[in-house]
Amino acid sequence: MEQLRFIMQYIKRHKWHYFAGIITLFVVDFANLYIPRITGTITDGLTAHTLDWTGVKRCLLGLLLLGLTLALGRFLWRYFLFGSARKIEKELRNDMFAHLEKMSVDYFNENKTGDLMTRFTSDLNAIRMAIGMAVISAFDATVMTVMVIGQMMVYVNVKLTLLALIPMVVICGGTIYYGKVIHAKYMERQEAVSDLTDYVQESFSGIRVVKAFVREQAQLAAFTRANEKTREKNLSLVRLQAVVMPLLEVFIGISSLVTLIYGGYLAIVGEITLGRFVAFHQYVNMLVWPMIACGDAISTFAQGGASIKRIQAVMEQQPEVWDGQLVSNLSEAERKTESPLTGQITFSHLTYTHKGAPEPDLRDICLEVPAGTTLAVIGRTGSGKSTLVNLMLHLFNTERGMILLDGRDINAIPLKSLRRQIAYVPQDNFLFSDTLKANIAFGVEGQDMEQIVAATTAACIHDSIMEFPEGYETVVGERGVTLSGGQKQRSSIARALMKDAPILILDDALSAVDTDTEEQLLRNLRENRKGKTTILIAHRISTIQHADVILVLEEGRAAEVGNHAQLMELKGIYYEMFEKQQLEAAMGEQRAALHREWGDEFPRDDIPQDEQTPDQATGKEAE
Questions:
Q1: Angle of the 124-131 helix axis to the 2-11 helix axis, nearest 10
Q2: CA 200 to the chain's CA centroid
Q3: Are 619 and 476 in contact (CB under 8 A)?
Q4: Is the dihedral of CA 201, 202, 203, 204 positive or negative?
Q5: pTM: predicted TM-score of the whole model, two decimal places
Q6: Mind listing the pLDDT tens digit for each residue in 568-590?
């Protein structure tokens, strides 16, 4: 019943189309009833010599008109019912996509992409069949059966009709049980398809890792197992259908045999005429479609019900991050008005624990960041750097008063308004399978080339783009795999600079850039971001040593705070990191010098990750 209530809210939007389709279907079924009667009339008339050529032509004209009515009616019910089912499928897909966009980050961490993709494809297809073809089959089977049985009783013979219906009753009872069994089997089949889809998606997304570790055969073996599981679940479904459908035809055949034997006897003894016996046999054949349609409808409804349950499970999930009570208390005008931020940030005893984590990721962080400040965050892996900026983007919830922007609680700022005013470069540097121009202009309306060039120049990627054969129209591969690591990072920085937001967050966004390019990019940022707040997260001290304020995180705590000179004087964690990196840099320079002098006996290990070959300059992989 819950699934029915869920889908009815969509069906009600198209109720008049459904109503028109069902009325048309009724007219078609009603017109079908008269074909056997006209055939029977012609047979009796010609047998008894009571029908002349004029009467035959009149009957044939009636058959022609019935044929035209059936043709038009079948077109109309397909237009109304199939068309409505397609529209509902589109609306469901749109609503589910919009709903998933609202879901919190944790939801996508906990649910596989392949499973969600299966719900967008095969599950929605099953629902479309259930609210389209299955509705037609169920209504047609019910109405046609009732009307045909009525005609058989009234026009031919009651006893013959009741005898022919005995196998039909057995069929009805079997199809009810069949529907319950196939529902469970279809759910298992959909889960297997979801697992297979997710495995394929993940394998192809990570194809570089697969090739690098020579794991093609292992991946193929794992895929074969998943594929075999899917095959077994499909075969389980098909085996059931392979048993039920022939049995259905057997009982239909028994019904036809009964009518032939007993009906023939009644015609011989004169209880019914030959024409009515012919008409009755046609009526029995007309019951074949409703019986088959009934089995198909139950199977399709069962599959559709299982898919509705899976779609409903997605739609009923509520986002953990949303415009909560503080935003709800604002007036409508306040919610729609985007109050510009200056970039002042206050962390007040900020403490946060990820869901399921035994200990807090951030502990009691207190820091005041004036507008226009460059804040650098540094720390060992797992110290909470990315968590800090994710909280600033309100990707996770914090307690009231822990993060203030311009003195306003972050929970009181509408999500869209907050995120529009923060430009963000994530660690994974995600690029879409689109042109570089579209990727860089992703966060703004329109694709103004002057602004795009200004952003790419500031991000030190313009010259590299112009070396590509198609320049800004170059289409990057999925997730930007056709670009080098440094090119992806700088393209992501250009995309963030396009927003010209009061707050810019760079989450380890210069790790794949060589030192010369890094210095130029940082100079451009200082010039470009004057008077605006910038947050730099990095592992290299060379990236952040010129920041106004440096926050050193250690196990989620603010271990040290100050500028470069102040932190060096403390001779604490920051000082140790600086000394270690200086030593590593000196060793790298020494190895480079030895390599220049002795060649391959001293291979270099300081080649920048962003150094390109001619092939990479055109967006291709180097051999």
A1: 80
A2: 15
A3: yes
A4: positive
A5: 0.72
A6: 998 888 888 888 888 877 776 67
